[in-house]
Automatic annotation (TrEMBL):
Belongs to the transketolase family. DXPS subfamily. It comes from Rhizobium glycinendophyticum. Its EC number is 2.2.1.7. This is 1-deoxy-D-xylulose-5-phosphate synthase. It is an enzyme of class 2 (transferase). The lineage of its organism: Bacteria, Pseudomonadati, Pseudomonadota, Alphaproteobacteria, Hyphomicrobiales.
Length: 625
């Protein structure tokens, strides 16, 4: 059956029973693809029937189908002309793991960050009206995504505008982990109506109806015999917003995923029979685990320490904290804005809240960071995981901007761990720092393998460290590019170029003494960061300019992420494209010095402050204080 589908037009010509058979084939194909590529399995298996029914009833791509988050879009992609390319899913040059406008007309709107579909869908609906065009808009949003404030902003507007819009709530009672919050309870109450008709009366006026949407359901989201006629009737219904409540099972049709829907939310390639995922042996602990253990150690000493996550308990390691401190741990649902201001309230009440949020998801809470935290100088601690480039999730999940968007805020202290030992110390530093907001960032994945300190030591705020000394060039790293800087140092030694490598540790407050010394005592200062332009390097330049030190005698370059979004690939390949690897750093040094390299190496450079041979007398590597 699947072989007959070249476009959704073909799908619309299938008989009912052929669609039922197609569902089995589509489920098997989705399972096979993801077992080979890895990716978001559970949510994709949960929408097989919904995907078929929507494309069978609506005239896609003219009618717009929006997938919230988009992580469940693999069956949609298989049915909309991308079947042959699915083996490239989430790989370099391959199919994205989320919907993308540039990929297909069947993807009218990109996604990956949750809870955007109703807003965008309403935009398309009003767009049809204003263009005088007939068209339907269907938004599929999960119960987890529905818990975000943005979804309610959209419902509020949709309910009042009264435009034609079909919202399908894909309710599997799961986010990544089990759904939390009052909405989850409300949905479970509504779901019970199917089992207890007498309860129907009480369920009549549910939340969605009170928002002005016609509510239909709850129905079995896996039953095509129900879905197909119902969607056809909704398509012909009078214009106005409708919410269809479809009850599904995350991982439906694959027993391993149904039994452990959290474990099968995002998977590595796996063996279908056993459900065993392929895992490369870890060379070092992952940063997330190091953070969680360090926070637990601090929380044992200080009962004011609170852990907060926005529906990413496992992803941030807060689930480990929750095991030991259930009363001091809060999963607020997909609600980053609320998480930040909730933390601000806790800080104002004398607690020590640690808000553990991925860098890219934290973008959603920027005004709360500025208005509720920075402006009031409240000591909220931000544990920013997935800083820098993350790999298969691609540009939507890149932690590219937090340095710039935090270090420009008054009262903030902004740190980046250069390795997992530094991360332990930064957790202690944040725990001890009660005079204002403080953030520390660290990447997805494994550390360097450096031995971890038995106990974290609070760092002296605003102090960086020299890791290796040299004479000609200084590499000042902010974050985990430090390892690449040390490799570049070894490469440059082969050309007779002697390199100092320093770990800035802080983007705010800057270690101005270290920067001034490095700048005064080297031919070239290079800053390196896993962030977009306008972050650490810009702040160093700003400082040197303000001090009138940019006199041309010392050269300076700032290495940052490029001014374009980098498509998914392995993190290594993405950093290669970003030109932030050791060979790029070394190449940049040689490029800048090229015309003068012999003078530089032989010490016959321009008249300078007489420090030619002095190794900068600043903080030593062992100086943790
Ligand atoms: C703003 C934002 N925060 C967090 C996430 C991480 N995330 C991806 S999927 C997901 C759970 C979504 O649950 P639901 O909408 O119910 O979809 P399901 O996986 O159950 O199909 C979360 C929290 C995200 N994508 N965007
Ligand atoms: C779809 C989504 O946003 C999450 O599932 C995200 O992909 C998790 O990222 P990590 O795999 O880095 O935890
Ligand atoms: Mg769900």
């Amino acid at each position: 059956m699947l072989d007959r589908i070249r476009s959704t037009q073909d799908l619309r010509s299938l008989e009912h029973l052929e669609l039922v058979r197609l569902a089995d084939e589509l489920r098997a194909e989705t399972l096979k693809v993801v077992s080979e590529t890895g990716g978001h399995l559970g949510s994709s298996l949960g929408v097989i029937e919904l995907t078929i029914a929507i494309h069978a009833v609506f005239d896609t791509p003219h009618d717009k189908l929006l997938w919230d988050v988009g992580h469940q879009c693999y069956p949609h992609k298989i049915l909309t002309g991308r079947r042959e390319r699915m083996s490239s899913l989430r790989k370099k040059g391959g199919i994205s793991g989320f919907t993308r406008r540039s990929e297909s007309p069947y993807d009218p709107f990109g996604a990956a960050h949750s809870s955007t579909s109703i807003s965008a869908g309403l935009g398309f609906s009003v767009g049809f009206d204003l263009a005088g065009e007939e068209g339907h808009v269907v938004c599929v949003i999960g119960d987890g995504a529905m818990s975000a404030g943005m979804a309610f902003e959209a419902l509020n507007n949709a309910g009042s505008l009264g435009r034609r819009l079909i919202v399908i709530l894909n309710d599997n009672d799961m986010s990544i982990s089990p759904s939390t919050g009052a909405l989850a309870r409300h949905l479970s109450r509504i779901r019970q109506i199917t089992d207890a008709p007498e309860a129907a009366a009480t369920g009549r006026h549910n939340l969605f109806q009170n928002f002005g949407l016609r509510y239909v359901g709850p129905i079995d989201g896996h039953d095509l015999h129900t879905l197909l006629p119902l969607l056809r009737s909704l398509k012909e219904a009078d214009p106005g917003p409708i919410l269809l409540h479809a009850v599904t099972r995350k991982g439906a049709g694959y027993h391993h995923a149904e039994a452990a829907p959290d474990k099968f939310h995002g998977v590595n390639p796996f063996d279908i029979l056993s459900g065993t995922q392929v895992k490369t042996p870890a060379k070092a602990p992952v940063y997330t685990k190091v953070f969680a253990n360090a926070l637990i150690a601090e929380a044992r000493r200080d009962k004011r320490i609170i852990g907060i996550t926005a529906a990413m308990a496992a992803g941030t390691g807060i689930d480990l904290f929750q095991k030991e401190f259930p009363d001091r741990c809060f999963d607020v649902g997909i609600a980053e804005q609320h998480a930040v201001t909730f933390a601000a309230g806790l800080a104002a009440s004398g607690m020590k809240p640690f808000c553990a949020i991925y860098s890219s998801f934290l973008q959603r809470a920027y005004d709360q960071i500025v208005h509720d935290v920075a402006l009031q100088n409240l000591p909220v601690r931000f544990a920013i995981d997935r800083a820098g480039l993350v790999g298969a999730d691609g540009p939507t999940h890149a932690g590219a901007f937090d340095i710039g968007y935090l270090a420009n805020l008054p009262n903030f202290t902004v740190m980046a761990a250069s390795d997992e030992a530094e991360l332990v110390h930064m957790v202690s530093t944040a725990a001890a720092h009660d005079s204002g907001p403080i953030a520390f960032r660290y990447p997805r994945g494994e550390g360097t393998g450096i031995s971890l300190p038995a106990e974290g030591q609070a760092l002296q705020i605003g102090r960086g460290r020299i890791v290796e000394s040299g004479r000609h060039v200084a590499l000042l790293s902010f974050g985990t590019r430090l390892a690449e800087c040390l490799s570049a140092r070894r490469m440059l030694a082969d050309y007779g170029i002697s390199v100092t490598v320093a770990d800035a540790r802080f983007a705010k407050p800057l270690d101005t003494a270290l920067i001034a010394e490095l700048f005064a005592n080297h031919e070239l200062l290079l800053t390196v960061e896993e962030g977009a332009t306008g972050g650490f390097g810009a702040l160093v330049l700003h400082y040197l300019a303000q001090k009138g030190m940019l006199d041309g005698r010392t050269r300076i370059r700032t290495l940052t992420l490029p001014d374009h979004f980098i498509a998914q690939a392995s993190p290594e390949d993405m950093y290669d494209e970003a030109r932030l690897t050791a060979r790029h750093i070394a190449g940049q040094v040689r490029g800048v010095l090229a015309p003068h390299v012999s003078e530089v190496i032989n010490g016959h450079t321009r008249a300078r402050g007489g420090h030619q041979d002095a190794t900068p007398q600043v903080h030593r590597a062992e100086d943790r204080g």
